[in-house]
Amino acid sequence: MLVVGRPQDASCSGCSSRATVPSAIMLALFLCPAIRKSWARAASSLGVISPVLTRSDICVSRSSPGFASLAHQAADDALVAVMAKLGRFRGESRFTTWAYKFAVLEVSAKLGRHFWQRPAVTLEAGQWDQLPDRLGLRPDELAEHAELLAALRRAVAEDLTERQRHVFTAIVVDGVPLDALVVQLGSSRNAIYKTMFDARRKLRAALAANGYLDDDDPGCS
Amino acid sequence: MNGWPALDRFLRADPRDVGCAEAMEMLHIYVDVVAAGEPAEQRYPGIAAHLSACGPCGEDFEALLAAVRDDAG
Asked: Tell me, what's the ipTM?
């Protein structure tokens, strides 16, 4: 399923020649034992809590040095983040779930920075010829939807603000991961997503107004 | 007219979508509800809408859920 800002085929030139950027899931699974051990040491020394170390044999054999380094950095930073926020835990979830969240968010942030520092995908602006593939269109469907594609491109040029156009083009047309764009623009995930959200609404409204899409979206106004 | 379903779905912006900040603020609670097998989408429709539309937040959700399930396994 196509979603906003998920890297489709992004690669990391720093990990290995053909390694796919490690997914947040793999990193998180690797990270959990690491953060549990760090946590146990730190928490025990503070006399705060004694987490149960349940499973520390997550397979990391497939991980590259870049992968492991990234995970260890994220684990260290997540531990700092969690320790700093300990007083804010309100018991709305299990403690470990709350703590792991910071590990996951650290991984995401690091993946974005890592990608932007070492992009292996081509980051040429305006790769419109790649768009049909990114949006799930088969080659044999190209001719049928050429007019719609042209209308979309026209709407991007004419109906979006400069900021919306830049963000939409980077994420959707050029395939830059949303978190990497956050780093590049010095923005936040929330702000970039909101920009994309507004851009999607505008584009759908424009295409519907011209008869290219059904005008039945409750989100359009 | 709608001959490009993937584009149509992509451009549909769910008005219930709470955005990244609120979704991430509530993520640990949402994940525990999902892990417990309870109807998280019904209880938190705005978060569910966001996680299905936002790639990075959706990945964070999947990662945290995987970690929690790994713990329980």
From this structure: 0.92
Pick the residue from chain B with its C-alpha nearest to A106: B60
Q: Based on the number of CB atoms within 10 Å of its own CB, is A122 exposed (0-12), middle (13-18) or buried (19 or more)?
A: exposed
More confident residue, A87 or A4: A87
Quick: pLDDT tens for A145-179: 889 989 999 999 999 999 999 999 999 888 888 88
Residue range(s) in chain A whose domain bears CATH number 1.10.10.10? 128-209
Instruction: Write down the domain spans for chain B.
Output: 21-72
In CATH, the architecture of A128-209 is Orthogonal Bundle (1.10)
How does pLDDT run across A16-56, given as a tens digit for each residue? 433 344 455 556 655 666 565 655 555 455 444 433 333 33
CB A156 within 8 A of CB A165: yes
| Count of all residues that appear for chain B in the document | 73
Instruction: Give the pair of three-digit tokens for residue A194.
Output: 């909101």
pTM attached to this predicted model: 0.77
Q: How far is CA B28 from CA A27, A57, A76, A89, A140, in A?
A: 18, 24, 20, 11, 44
Q: Are A25 and B63 in contact (CB under 8 A)?
A: yes
Q: What angle do CA A197, A195, A142 make, to 5 degrees?
A: 60
A160: contact with B, CB 8 A cutoff: no
* Partners of residue B56 in chain A, C-beta under 8 Å: 5-6, 108, 177-179, 189
Is A97 within 8 Å of B32 when comparing Cβ atoms?
Answer: yes
